[in-house]
Amino acid sequence: MLLKSEIKKSYKNQKITWKNKPSGLTRKKIENLVLSDNYILIITGIRRCGKSTLMHQLSQRENEPSAHFNFEDFRIFGFELSDFSKLNDIIGEQVMCYFFDEIQNVVNWEIYIRELHDKGKKICITGSNAAMMSKELGTKLTGRNIQIELFPFSYAEYCQFQKYEWNTQSFNSYLLDGGFPDYLKSKQKEYLQQLFKDIIYRDIIVRYGIRNANSMTEIALFLISNTAKEYSLNSIKKAFGVGSTNSVANYVQWLEDAYILFSIPRFSPSLKIRAVNPKKAYTIDAGFAQANSSSFTDDIGRIFENVIFLELRRNHKEIFYFKEQGECDFIVKKGKEICYILQVCVELHPDNMKREINGLMEALSYFNKEEGVIVTLNQHDEIYEDGKKIIILPAHEWLNIIKLGI
């Protein structure tokens, strides 16, 4: 419980900061976002990816009285449910639009948000933990919210931010830099290393009361270092001496909830088989991965594959890898339909051509599809084989096609 004077001081200081906050790059996500009293808008994503900036841009479009409050302000540490009434008094009843950062730090926050929503207020909140937001929204705010995910800059946003042309050279730069906005201003890898430590400690170790902090950190670094490679819970359990595969499963899930990692399953029509087969992990950002893994920096192929995965993941959640006799990197499903069958290869050459094409052809035959794509760094071609069409595209061209929705 806090004194009203403490909350008021924090609110006034934050109000000045919010008013003077730079507008930042206009994100693609904002195009279809509308603040409404019909639903609560929730923006989730990894720390420092631009959630507050996006929310600030939304606030600038509103003509009604609004208020912003960041619950990560150290001056209000210990903020409780009962303190919301004090914050309400400070803000005033005339406010119609509420913008709250990291509100999940307050236990039972959803009760207060429900009260505001019932009064017809417009509400936008941000959070860095996908599962925690979903769980709490599901108990008190079912059907009353729209949730969107925000990632670090896409390649398109990176080019816009850096004022680069769309070409192989700028894409190569994106492979090295990634898309964290503040990192791009300084290019100090220590920033991304500290970000990793902050997320692991604040969003996972402290939040879930993990006693073996070293194992948690080591597993996170292991998965980042092995981006685009298969892993199993059992192999991690043995490698790091964790007590059970259930514990490992929790660790991996918490990393995913904090948006450090994504895991994709090997495709199988059977959910049981999917659950026991090895998965592949991908990291939230290429620059973030390289800053936190020395072994990752020399493997351009896995960095490249990670970037292509992220572009798919921005718009699709059902992504698999295919592995039978050969392997195909990505199978993307939308509802009951397979919408993309994709192979990723930095450069096709005599040593890998047969393997890459055979893996893609096998996937096309399995799903009874006529066309697949191989994304490369700078090659452009078409291959026709056994009635199938394989389109070979440079990454920057493929990304432009994806952006345009072709």
Largest sheet: 6 strands, mixed
Helix/sheet category: alpha/beta
CATH superfamily of the largest domain: Winged helix-like DNA-binding domain superfamily/Winged helix DNA-binding domain
The CATH architecture of the largest domain? Orthogonal Bundle
Rough outline: globular
Query: Beta fraction of the residues?
Result: 15-25%
Uncertain runs with pLDDT below 50, 5 residues or more? none
State the end-to-end CA separation. 54 Å
- Global Rg: 23 Å
The total of beta strands comes to: 14
Q: Percent of residues in helical segments?
A: 40-55%
Q: What is the class of the largest domain in the CATH system?
A: Mainly Alpha
How many structural domains in the coordinates? 3
Per DSSP, the total helix count is: 17
Strand order of the largest sheet: 9-10-11-12-14-13
